[in-house]
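S., here's the first fold you wanted:
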Amino acid sequence: MNITRRNIDDLNAVVTVEVNKEDYAPKVEAVLKNYAKTATIPGFRKGTVPMSMIKKQYGKAILLEEVNKVLQENLNKYLQQEKLDILGNPLPKVDEHFNWEAEDYKFDFELGLTPTFEVDLSKAKNLTQYKIVADDKMLEDQVMRIRKQYGKMISKDTIEAGDDIAGTFNNEEKGINNPGQFTLDVFNDKKQADLFIGKKVGDVVTLNTKGLFADDHQLMDYLKVSHDDVHGLDINVDFTIEEVNNAEPAELNQELFDKLFGEGNVSSVEEIKEKIKQDAETQFESQANQKFLNDVTEYLLTDTKFDLPATFLKKWIQTVGETPLTPEQAEEEYARSEKGLRYQLIEGKVMSQNNLQITFEELKDYTAQMIRKQMAQFGQMNPTDADVDGIVARVLSNQEEVKRLSDQVMSEKMLNLYKEKVAHEVKEVNYEQFIAASYGE
């Protein structure tokens, strides 16, 4: 067995594997003997079939199988020993003159090599980490929502300002058929809001989506249209009025406080606002962190320059699926996946350069924290360590869950690394300002 490598360039190489008769012949002979013991051929008792007949009937298939086993085993061993960092899998080169009747064989494999590059986190510029705060307006709106939620609902037939309206948005052309509930102050266009005044249950109000809301992204919530469609959407939608109610807000008293937060835990509006603020800003923090992570990712993709063995990868893509792809299909698939592949390489380089690793203890601790939070949401505030440990063990026995949780832990490590090493501005904003910054509006 002899294996050699010829580098075509920095990104492509050819490995040649020479398989000699002594590498495979003993294995082929052993398999043939085993076949001879078990083969059933008409005219012969089991175990008495002549070896010449066994070789004639099974010899070629056994030869191909055993040579392939020896080939793959030694090729993989070579790649490991040489510590070759490759993309995809080795691709066998077709040899039209290959002769299986020979005793010694030579196989060529194309390799796509991982590019060599470095990631310099210190070069980043113009990145912002947002700190989203729950401002007074948001807190007042949330308190009023709570009061209406726990207040007394009075059913009505005719709409007046301040009423709660429920019904269904419809537009057949766009496939919109979505229930909605709102008060008229949700609309940015007062003229369209006024169309509802005096209308009754069963009436249909036609609205134009252009400028209907202060933020076009609200169309995603009310009409269930995609993010790509909301910008500049200019269509008519029919809203069928199905229910009209007027909420008489609940009084802000101790009875309401106890109902919301448990007896004696809250005794003032200020304390309610503080709890709302804490909960909201905890949720906002995860959104702000994700945006910062995304922004650093986009920066790294733009700033970190390296070439890929594109020709090799497109050939490999043709063969990797259950159904072979045409060159044109492989070209399209490569275009779709190139950005993701680039970031995988960049992310791997960041991990290796900064020695980011996950220990099993870290994974267990992260899983336990997640489980305690989930249990708290269902009222189990103080589960025993034994209970949590038992759930952790069950979760981590599932390999898919281990992969998902490991990705989350590594994402946190990457985020913390970026906050530490990537130059950025910390900017305090309210939620509306954050949405505007996120979507460029």
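And the second, which I think is the more interesting of the pair:
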Amino acid sequence: MIDYSFPLYRPPAEADNIIIQATLGCSHNRCSFCTMYKTKRYTIRPLNEVCREIEALAHTYPNANKVFLADGDALALPTDHLAKLLRLLKTSFPRLTRVSLYATAQNFLEKSIDELKELRAGGLSLAYFGIETGSDALLSKIDKGVNADQMIEALRRAHEANIKISATVILGIGGIEYTREHIHDTAKLINAAPITYLSTLQLGLEEGAKDRFLKAFDSFTPLNDLQILHEQRELLSLINPPQKIIFRSNHASNALHLSGTLPKDSKKLMAQIDDALRVGEGALIPKWFRGF
């Protein structure tokens, strides 16, 4: 049995896959909307400990084919350290087809293209990446640590190394005051940066984050569910990506679940939003079924 350090988070798509904590916490850990790793200090776990866990999991699940490396941004690991883990994963799980992790723009910017290509050759194939917004003003307010141009460069490096990106955007993160800037600048970023998957979720502030988040705004008026749908519709209308994007809004926070491929299904998705807006609250997922 693996002795995980909790809290432990993973993307919904990794629910049935092997999870290995290569690091604890998040190397940035300053995003004002996030409370995921506030109880943890960022730590690189000793390689020998992680290797023992890989061997134990491989013995119990010899046919596993997908592995997620936790915690918050395992790509922050030194390249040689991460490369050793990838080599062990490949030998331990003969049917391995995918290794994924959370990653920040800073992680990609701190590694050379050659380093990223080395990791890709070692088996790292997917990174979950929080865009949140393309607005420089909002990126500063939420303490993301990078601007939009840096985020585009990070995504370009991932693409050049052939590491797929599953990106997220947070609807409502600018309130009513920044809604237009948030959506237009986010669409501009997505149109400039090749990604494979895109998900939207709705802003939800836990008590541990609310005061710090709001402190950065002179005024912040939250969007209601119908206003969020207008944001989402506007975003979909503006996205014209350099390559096709598999789009989902099926996160537990979302009032309306959508799925399709952009830009092929953009009009269909906008029509679904229009139908929901015509019906109103009755077309949305009840609030008590939603959460983070």
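Why I say that: The CA atoms of residues 24 and 43 lie 5 Å apart. The mean pLDDT is 96.

Talk tomorrow,
H.
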